[in-house]
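Quick log. Single chain, no ligands specified.
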Amino acid sequence: METIFEAGQSSCAPKTAFTGKVKDEQEATLAFLQAERKRLQAALYERNDQLRLIADAFPGKVAYVDAQQRYQFINKQYEDWYQVPAEQIIGKTVNDLMGKSSYQSIQNYIEAALAGQRVNYEFTGAFEDGKDRCLGVSYLPHLNQMGATLGFFVVCQVVTERSR
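-> predicted structure:
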């Protein structure tokens, strides 16, 4: 927008005329914001891919469970362990995935993690494939800046061979 003063008009009462400048500036700003959004989105996808590669390279199970005890992330070892794709695990509760009896044996550990405590334990139980396994498990709480627990990270490795 530019200000135009007509002859005989006081400088205190400008008359405005729109030019193409405002529209051009808005379009340029919009184009910049769209390009920046695409750049940030690409960086986020790349970061997610890196996280997935790291988690999948880990020799044990890695997961993120939210405050409602639903899986939000699992690595390839979870898929292999339960022999189902991630899409069939993500969104399930720990109870749904592990079964009632196994869940009841670890429920206190989950509640401690959701209360903000770091938890380490060994767990022996029968799994959906019918096999008993001893697992070394760590729950690492995920806290927001106010100290509220958002969920917890799970790191789990088979230790059956070490326990024998």
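Helices lie at 20-57, 76-82, 94-98, 100-114, 160-163.
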